[in-house]
Amino acid sequence: MEETISLKELFHILKKRLAMILVIAFGAAIVSAIISFFFMTPIYQSSTQILVNQKKQEGAAIQYNEVQTNIQLTNTYKVIIKSPVILDQVKEKLGLNITTQELNKKIEVANEKDSQVVAVTAQDKDPKLARDIANTTAEVFKGEVAKIMSVDNVTVLSKAELSEELSPIKPRPMVNIAIAFVVGLMAAVGIAFLLEYLDNTVKKEEDVESLLGLPVLGIVARMDEETMNMTSHAPSSRKVRGQTIGS
């Protein structure tokens, strides 16, 4: 027959290994906190928005086909923004001592579905540099796209600014600590059950029967040291039979 384990036994195992489980879980959380606060470099993010839209003469109606064309152009513009033609000029204007590939990794370009607005986002450990990269990239692109595409349909909607309460986007210490605690807790529970599975100590009558294949006839009661001492030092009472000798 397959060996089964009851819910009560599961709780007993967890209770027996509770100290180990808590040490591992909180240890993982503490290590994560130390790494997040003292070893990981904070990264800041700044974004600017550009609008892809044809300039209209006063009183001219906006045509649906033109809007669709502008939306389709955004996909092309997203590629151009991160091309060496643009990024090399951004490096030169900001005096960056990094490669074009490294600058490319600092910039993300995205737009919502069916939207003419493109967001240029830059990330760096220096929040001011992140702002400057985003703004300069947008300005350089606006000037170069007219030469590359022979169109003038890009407008900078909003420039990246530094807020007073600026906080890094990563690392996120509290999230890291929570994840580390949960992972550590799960790992500790797994280790507790593994140790119990590998423990061959005989604990119950059923273990003896399973190991020897013989029925248990009797059980020796367990006595603690205090009870044994009381028993050994207890005075023994004896009854002495007396006889009365005649007068």
Layout of helices and strands:
Layout: H1 7-16, H2 18-39, E1 44-52, H3 64-81, H4 84-94, H5 100-106, E2 107-110, E3 117-124, H6 127-149, E4 154-158, H7 173-198, H8 205-212, H9 225-232
Helix pairs in contact: 2-7, 4-6
Entry keywords:
Alpha-Beta Plaits; 9 helices; 54% helix; 247 residues; elongated; four-stranded antiparallel β-sheet; 2 domains; alpha+beta
Describe the structure.
Mean pLDDT is 83; it is low at 57-61. By secondary structure, the chain is α+β, with helices and mostly antiparallel strands. It has nine helices and four strands. The protein has two domains: 14-40 and 171-230, no CATH class; 44-158, EIF_2_alpha (Alpha-Beta Plaits), CATH 3.30.70. The longest helix is centred in the last third of the chain and has 26 residues, at 173-198. The chain has helices spanning 7-16, 18-39, 64-81, 84-94, 100-106, 127-149, 173-198, 205-212, 225-232; strands at residues 44-52, 107-110, 117-124, 154-158. It starts with 6 loop residues before the first helix and ends in a 15-residue tail after the last helix. Strand 2 (107-110) and strand 3 (117-124) form a beta hairpin. The chain has a four-stranded antiparallel β-sheet.
